[in-house]
Specification:
Blueprint lengths: L9 H27 L5 H8 L3 H7 L3 H26 L2 H19 L3 H4 L9 H22 L9 H13 L6 H14 L13
């Protein structure tokens, strides 16, 4: 008797399961890096993710492969949040919420700092990836808020990304709530000149 063919959609479910497992692994790595640093034992990451060490190495043969994947995963999640927030909130509120989401991303990135700024060429592509994904995400939110007359319309997204990152890193050990309040003040300042055409330096 011949076997029945797998139900339609089974390969898609398998791929979805694999993606979820990979995300679990990346989330575990990020959590371990945040507490133990990027040189944390691979076994600690595998145990937190609930997988074997061999599974981790199958996905990420080198530690740098894992670090790059963790960084990209964080950037992707932050970028994708822009469209989700825009679909469910008013333009300025979506912008404000996304900027706080970006603050959270910058905070988690600290656990990767030792590797990202080590000079290892394995990480050379990450700054460009960061800009390519987050700049248009923020631009879309700025455009919507500007079109609604809620903020000025001459804001360069990458300048804002850098300004917020500097607020997040300028005071090591600073209360995260303090950083969030400072970023909220910065975003509120974008209202100056709202509703009229403005140019840099004006």
């Amino acid at each position: 008797m011949s076997e029945k063919p797998p139900p339609k959609g089974t390969p898609r479910r398998v791929r979805a399961d694999a993606q979820r497992n990979l995300k679990t692994l990346l989330d575990a790595a990020l959590a371990v890096f945040a507490t133990s640093g990027v040189d944390a034992p691979v076994r600690e990451i595998a145990e937190k993710a609930g997988v074997g060490v061999a599974t981790l190495y199958r996905h990420f043969p080198q530690r740098s492969d894992l670090i790059v994947a963790v960084f990209r995963n964080g950037v992707d999640a932050c970028a994708e949040a822009a469209a989700e927030l825009a679909a469910s909130h008013a333009p300025f509120e979506a912008l404000s919420l996304w900027m706080q989401r970006y603050v959270d991303f910058v905070a988690t990135k600290r656990g990767l700092a030792a590797a990202l700024y080590s000079g290892d060429p394995a990480y050379d592509s990450l700054p460009a990836y960061f800009e390519q994904r987050l700049r248009p995400a923020l631009q879309s939110l700025l455009d919507a808020a500007g079109a609604a007359g809620e903020i000025r319309r001459d804001i360069e997204p990458f300048d804002l990304l850098k300004a917020v990152a500097q607020l997040c890193t300028s005071a090591p050990g600073c209360d995260p709530d303090h950083t969030s309040r400072m970023v909220a003040l910065l975003i509120d300042g974008l209202r100056y000149g709202a509703g009229r055409e403005t140019r840099p330096g004006k």
